[in-house]
Amino acid sequence: MTDQELETIIAGDEGEQTEFKIESEKPSDLAEVLQGFAHAQGGRLLVGVSDDGQVVGVTRLKYVIDRLRQAAAQVSPSLEPFLSIETVNIQGQQVVVAQIPQVDGIFAVSGGYRIRKGSRTVAMTLEELRSRMAHFGQIVTENLPVPTASLDDIDQEAFRAYLQQRSTRPEGPDDLTNLLRRESFLTLDGPTERPTYAAMLLFGKAPQDFGPLFNARLKAARFAGTEPVYFLDEANFTGTIPAIIKEAIAFVGRNIHHPLLVDPAITGTYTSVKTSEYPEAAFREALTNALCHRDYYLSRPSYLKIFDDRIEIESPGGLYGATGIEEIKGRHLTRNATIARTLHVLGLIEQFGTGLYRMERTMREAGLPPPLFQYSEQHFLVTLRGPSSLTDARSRPPTDAPAERAGPGETAEEKELTWLLERIGGNERLQPRRVRQARGTLYARNRGSISRSQYVELNDLSEDTAKIDLRELVQEGVLELSGAARASVYRLMDYKPRS
What we know:
It is built from 18 helices and 18 strands. It is α+β, with helices and mostly antiparallel strands and 499 residues long. The strands form six sheets. It has a six-stranded mixed sheet. Strands 1-2-4-3 form a four-stranded mixed sheet, sandwiched between helices. β3 (84-90) and β4 (93-100) form a beta hairpin. α8 packs antiparallel against α10, α10 (280-293) runs antiparallel to α13 (355-365) and α15 packs across α16 (432-447). The longest helix is centred in the last third of the chain and has 16 residues, at 432-447.
């Protein structure tokens, strides 16, 4: 790292990936910062810089380096193999830069678990810790026992129907306990065998009656317009996963348009054919994935939201076993292997690893934009954009837009913002998200680029939300990402200033 690079980092102040320390810091305090970085996006610890960003340097170089290595070793398991240390001379002082990448796993310091959020290293909530443990396979949620549940809470008819469908031969007269045990749907809770989360979610008579599964439900709503304000229809779906999927598909069906098509070139007949605003295969797949792959340790419901221009399906828990969407396409990665296997037998999952491709293909064949996938550690959101979302202005030449569309009395910047809102937003342009994105796009146009931290400051929002906003702009071809990881910026792809 050069002194100029370090000066730029210091000028950017402390943040999600930067922490300032002086050389007298205790190893335990340094260990907590390293642990927080490892659990988040990685980061750099600058020893020799005060909290207010003043370069004070270090006087005992070897002592500081030894303390940093000691701090990394205090983390359990040790972060020392991932630690890199360098010394940079700046303003006549020596600053020690300790860098740690994002590391898969769970790391403790004195029995505590911390994560980096903004410019602070904070204790993980119990929900965050459990979710992370489930993500890395230290807890397999679907295999946990459901407290107080018993065999009486299993729908025997539904379970035996599944067995018949799975097997090529009729099941014998085995008692229910042996059958459930053979399929790994029973587990010990102390001395007592109880149905697992998976057993109750798939075959339970009333799964949501049990505390841990209370929010294993889907909340659905049809809103008027493009904002979640006025309800036209709503439902709260409970029961087993197969039952919720069936009811949710029917809910979507009654809340989207089904125009009649008369086009012999497409239908082969002059008789009118009933069509659908969205291909059923796409929203069926999105709903099934949301309920199959969600994190059931997180006590939050899944959501189905239908607007005039899109369908949103959100589930608790981020990507499992991957860091990006492209990594999971064509691969069978699931945190709930037993649930996935059972839904496959029941015909609700056609083939492992093909769901995202099928969603994209059916949307493309319907002449609709591809699905949008947004995620963080705590949620996964699929957006299916409908026919009305196609009426955006991004394909119009930029030179014809601002002057004609600007309202009376607008400033030059407001005129540009008006055009940008239409350019990136279409029918979504009044959404707060789109206003933020337009503001960021205008910033990138005027200054040549925008970084994530600049986007956060510009819109006064969290790092996670900024990441989602910017990723969507890249997916839509508005911005492009350039530069190495720590120095990456976003540039406008096709805007050309008016002469």
